[in-house]
Every structure is written in structure tokens, then in C-alpha cells.
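Appendix B: a complete holo record

For completeness, this appendix reproduces one full record from the ligand-bound portion of the collection. The bound molecule is zinc ion. The inputs are the chain sequence and the ligand SMILES; the output is the full three-dimensional arrangement of the complex, encoded as C-alpha cells. No fields have been trimmed.
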Amino acid sequence: MIDKEKIERAVTLLLEGIGEDVNREGLKETPERIARMYEEIFAGLEETPKPYLSKTFSVEDSGMVLEKDIVFYSTCEHHLLPFYGKAHIAYLPDGKVVGLSKLARTVEVYARRPQLQEQLTVQIADALMEYLQPKGVMVMVEAEHMCMTMRGVKKPGTQTVTLVTRGRFAEEKGLKDEFWRMMGR
Ligand SMILES: Nc1nc2c(ncn2[C@@H]2O[C@H](COP(=O)(O)OP(=O)(O)OP(=O)(O)O)[C@@H](O)[C@H]2O)c(=O)[nH]1
Ligand SMILES: [Zn+2]
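The structure of the chain with zinc ion bound, as generated:
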């Protein structure tokens, strides 16, 4: 459960820590604003994709489904700075599919947490395998990390690409090739 009062106290301390006057006009409401923002950007901590991926529709012998360019914003758990980009999800149905929006909702559940890109990619793939039980899943995430652009090593434009395959995508090269073809790459 997100404790907004605790976040407010922490933000006040943080502002004091950088030597700011927490009572000046522009900062007065900041702790409360940040608490509200954290409630929004970390809402995934209190959710699972199970309800989204459990509502399915029957299909006969469908081919691969690819939903690409799902834009997401997440928060790097090391620096609490944003990382953002696109997720691409492919699966091979085993007699049932989910509503298209539910794949994007699954991305949101895991993006709205303190995260690592690798873990985000694994969690999306494993959730599909567990709740939808397709014949296979392939998930690719491409993202830029603010902790690498605005501070530290300062390398804007660097894209990190992570890839996870499960089931038949892990076993069959032909399916992976089909993924790249459908991605247009
Ligand atoms: N593997 C992985 N690393 C990440 C992710 N987000 C941020 N990082 C990295 O986490 C690392 C933390 O390294 P540390 O040496 O503990 O922290 P730091 O001194 O702030 O590191 P620098 O960013 O190199 O200045 C950095 O190399 C970040 O680039 C992610 O999603 N996955
Ligand atoms: Zn970081």
C-alpha cells in the first residue's frame, strides 16, 4: 500500500537535504504533489495483469500475434529517474487470444514500478505464459534511460534493447525470423 504521508515527509527531508527552503511558495505543495505523482507512476505495485490476461476469446489455429510500438514510461530502480521507450510483444496463441489493449495494460502494470529493463521484459513474457498459456512468447523492449543521459556517463541517444523468448519462440528459429519480418527489420 502506497503511504502518501511517508512520501511527503521523505520529500520534505530531501528538499532540506539539498539546502532548499521548503516553505517558499514554489515548493510548499511539492511534497504533496510528488506523493500524488508516485501514487500514479508506481500504481503497478498494487496490480497484477491476471484480470486482463484471464479474459480470452477462442480462435481456431491462429498464427502469430504481434503488438508493436507500445510506448511506456518506467522508473529506473537505481536512480528513480525515468526510462522510456517501446515494447513489442508477440505470442503464438493456443486456441485463445486476449483483447489487444490487454497486452498494453500488461506493460503498464510492470512499467509502473521501480524497475530494471531486463526484469520488465522478463515479467511481461512470463505473465503471458502464465495467464494466457500460449504456445510461445517473444518480448522486445527498447528504451532510453535518463540516468545515462542527464547525469553520470551522459550518453544521450543510447538505446538499450532487451529480448526474451519463451516456449516455441525459444526453440524455433523460424518463429524468431517471422518476428523480425513482422517488425519490419
Ligand atoms: N542492467 C540495468 N542497469 C540499469 C538499468 N537502469 C539503470 N541501470 C544502471 O545501473 C547502474 C548502477 O550503477 P552504480 O555504479 O551502482 O551507480 P552509479 O555510480 O550512479 O553509476 P553511473 O550511472 O555509472 O554513474 C548504472 O550502470 C546504470 O546505468 C536497467 O534497467 N538495467
Ligand atoms: Zn538509473
